[in-house]
Amino acid sequence: MLPAFTYAQPRTLDEALAALARGPAVIHAGGSDLLGCLHDRVFAADHVVSLSALDELRGIREMPDGSLRVGALASLAEVAAHGGIGRRFAALAEAARQVASPQLRNQGTLGGNLCQKPRCWYYRGDFHCLRKGGELCYAFAGENRYHCILGGDTCFIVHPSDTAPALVALGAVARVAGPAGTRSLPVEKLHVPPSEDPQREVALEPGEILTEVLIPAPDPRLRSSYRKVRERGAWDFALAGVALALTLDGDTVTSAAVVLSGVAPVPWRARQTEAVLQGARLDAATIATAARAAVAGAEPLEQNAYKVALTVGLVEEQLERIARE
Ligand SMILES: Cc1cc2nc3c(=O)[nH]c(=O)nc-3n(C[C@H](O)[C@H](O)[C@H](O)COP(=O)(O)OP(=O)(O)OC[C@H]3O[C@@H](n4cnc5c(N)ncnc54)[C@H](O)[C@@H]3O)c2cc1C
Ligand code: SF4
Fold this sequence. Notes:
Blueprint: E1 6-8, H1 13-21, E2 26-28, H2 34-39, E3 47-50, E4 60-62, E5 68-71, H3 76-81, H4 83-88, H5 90-97, H6 102-107, H7 110-115, H8 121-124, H9 163-169, E6 173-178, E7 181-186, E8 209-215, E9 222-229, E10 240-249, E11 252-261, E12 268-269, H10 271-277, H11 284-293, H12 306-324
Parallel strand pairs: 1-3, 2-3
Antiparallel strand pairs: 4-5, 5-8, 6-7, 6-8, 9-10, 10-11, 11-12
Helix pairs in contact: 5-9, 10-11, 11-12
The structure holds flavin-adenine dinucleotide and iron/sulfur cluster.
């Protein structure tokens, strides 16, 4: 059973900000993650503020300058099916298509997908671990086959969103409204690594709402993609995934963004892979070296070393796919 809480459904962004400013409250968008967390007592909330009536946060707009604006309340199904996104920002469309199941893509929003809580089974279960304010990470010496191999530090979650790595690769910017006005931050800075704060997932201040995501106009030569490997053929989170955004001049890479999912607590920029690709011909030798570089610095836990080879194979496969197109 869900615990008791008050529920407000403001009609405008200003009303929503005012409702959040009245005291500690959690934001409800599609509810597909939030309600599970409240039901399972992952965290508690006395007040819930729903964004669902804020039409100003809906919609997907292609701007005259070639950039794209996606409202935080756009559903993942809308993002997946949008023709302009599929044509010009393929990584985002492919990522949205690979999220969960059709029902969840209809209910879940882009904003909620970016701000969702991690799936570590200790965190979701009855364990007062470090992320919940306790002293221990139970995964470190426990069941850790789905945990991270990069950037773990004190907490070894993997960042759960498929759309976040695609947006980072595409250079997207998040627009945020809050009590002090509006601000922008790159989606690359939206997620908080455990080394900074193991109890916080997103860099939003209390009372702030993610309102939309802006993706700059792509270079006409941009090729982008997202693919994840999951344990089951049906809906599942990534064991490992990669978003690519490469600009090519002939077969030479003139810019490269490579962002991993399923292997780190935040969307993980594979900087060494990017450095190998930058200015190189996208041939078999470059691809092999670049793929190996993706796991530079990996520190697998006892049960998840398989993710190292999986990541290398996946990056190699996706670079080969771009080279063939
Ligand atoms: C069975 C299952 C399978 C799943 N599989 C995948 C998967 O394969 N890949 C994947 O990426 N995700 C997966 N998910 C997660 C799913 O995509 C998210 O639950 C969904 O995108 C969240 O969107 P929502 O609108 O329902 O968010 P909500 O549940 O309403 O909110 C989620 C969190 O974000 C916060 N939030 C929501 N909107 C905003 C906003 N605009 N500003 C600030 N904070 C906000 C809420 O406070 C809450 O903490 C799965 C979920 C389930 C239940
Ligand atoms: S990995 Fe993070 S969320 Fe999971 S048990 Fe450890 S501290 Fe908690």
